[in-house]
Amino acid sequence: VIEVTDRKTPEASQIYISKTDMSGADEVNGAVLKLTLSGGGKLPAIESSNPTLTSDENSIIFTSQSVPTSIKGLPDGTYVLSESVAPDKYTITGNIEFTIKNGKIEGTTDNAVKMKDELSKITVSKKDISGTKEIAGARLVVTLKEATKTKIGADLGDGTVTVTGGASAVSTSPDSVTFLSGNEPAVITGLPDGKYTLTEITSPDGYTINEETVNFEIINGVVVSGTSVQMLDRPSEIKISKTD
Question: Which of 142, 211, 214, 232 has the fewest CB atoms lying closer than 10 Å?
Answer without folding.
Answer: 211
